[in-house]
Each structure stands twice: as C-alpha cells, then as structure tokens.
Amino acid sequence: MTILTSLSTWAHRRRAVARDAAPERGVVMHVTLEARYAASLRHALSCDCAHDAWTMRIAPLPGTQQVRLSLYLPKQQVDTAMSRIEACAPSADVQQIVELPYAPTDAWRDLARVRASELSLRERPRTPWSPAEPAASLRELLTRERIETALDVAGRDALFSWAASRFARDTGLHAADIEAGLRERERSGSTALGHGFAIPHCRLARLHEPVAAYVRFARPVDLDAPDAQPVIDAVILLVPAWAGSLHLSLLAEIAQRFCDAEFRERLRGCATGGAIFDCLRA
Description:
The chain is of the alpha/beta class and 282 residues long. It folds into two domains: 7-111, Alpha-Beta Plaits; 138-281, Mannitol-specific EII, Chain A. The protein is built from ten helices and ten strands. It has helices spanning 7-17, 38-48, 78-88, 106-111, 138-141, 156-171, 175-187, 244-258, 261-268, 273-281, and strands at 26-34, 55-60, 66-74, 93-99, 147-151, 192-194, 197-198, 201-204, 211-221, 231-240. α3 (78-88) runs antiparallel to α8 (244-258) and α6 packs across α7.
C-alpha cells in the first residue's frame, strides 16, 4: 500500500469503492510517545492497516527523546489503533483524536496533511491479531451524581477549577494537584474533538482508580477545537499515573462514541441528567 499524498486522494479512492454508499468518515490521531517505541509501533500499525486507507507520519520532537505519531485512518479502526498503541507504548499520550468532515476545509486538510517524504506502509500482517478487551469503560465510571446538565463556567480556567473541586471531594486528592494536571495536559494540545465535544483528561500519581464526570455547559466554552466550534458537552477523565493502557482504552472508547454522528444526535436530544446517563449507558 503506497502512502497517500493528500486527503483528496484518500477521498477519491473511497468514493471509487462505494459510490452509492454514504462516505466513510476519517479520523486523525496525534500521539506523543518515547522514540524507542516508534519502530515497533510503526511495524505493528503497518501490519494492521495493510488493507485499509491509513496514513502514518512519525516526527521527532526537538530537544526530547520523544516523537509525535500522526495517524489518518477510517473511524471504525480507532479501537484497533489505540489497542496497538497501548500494547507497544503504554506511556504514550494521546494528544488529539478528531473526525474529519465529509468535505474538508483547508484547515482540516492542514490538520491531516501528509508529505511525500513521509513513511510508507508496505508491511503485510503475518499473523491474525485481535485487540484486547479494555479493563474498564465509561459505563462503569459514570454515575448519575457525576453528570452536570447546566454547568455555567466562563472558560477553560473556570472549567478546570470546577473539575478540580468536584473530583477532590471524590478522590481525596488536593484540588490544586488535579487542576495542575488538567492544565498541563491541555497545554500540550487541545482536548476538544470537534462537533462541540471535548475530553479534558490527565493522569495523576496519587490517584488510585479512574474517575469521570460528564458536563453539559449552560453556555458554550472555547477549548480551541480543531473545527473552531465551541464545546457544549465534555467528559472529564482522571486516570492513575500507572494506568497507561487503561487511559488509552478509555480515551478510545469515548472518542469513538463522540465521533459517531447518530450517537451525538441522540445525546444532544437528552434534556435531563437521567436521560444523558441512560444514553451513555446504552
């Protein structure tokens, strides 16, 4: 499989395969990981994407021992990619998972851009592989008490301050440590997915088990989303520092659900905390 040179090339090939069907949505993932894991992860992903329209780029981060992995892949393959990342590089940090629109704008093309010098995916799978089952899910973490339906915050800072106070009561951690963790993660890249959804998250050293909350804002909040849309709904996720694999599994689950247009429509139609809870548990 030769690397795709542009988003338009990928879209053309997909239309040629299924002209009468609805176009398949693509997803861009940006992941930061230690450079020593890059070769094995590249090979594993190359095997998995042998028969799909994937594009991959690995770029070193100057002054560090890390690299940035950028993946462009079909939406239904997000779980496979996240499972591979968690198996090969459990300390990896998912910077962004965003869904591309059917007709990408220049800004979206820039987000998903690939270059002629980028890596080619030529390997073919040698043995079948199935992703492992995640250790936990959003369904298990969320409770009715952790769903806010009309949270009124002025912006990003106020949101993190509220989340820190809320989770401090549940976890026994200092609110300042939680807020600092959320801020640090956000500085490395926006956790907004687009379409008005976001997943602010971080890993904390003294946290013993993952916790999550769902919030719907009384007024939209600007979180520098890749599609420039303000955020209306968000899942806030805290995970223990040692639970790298679990962290990736949870992010994959949440991001894939938010990338589903039908699910977003059902969720936006929920007017009460109970209805939101039932929708998320379905």
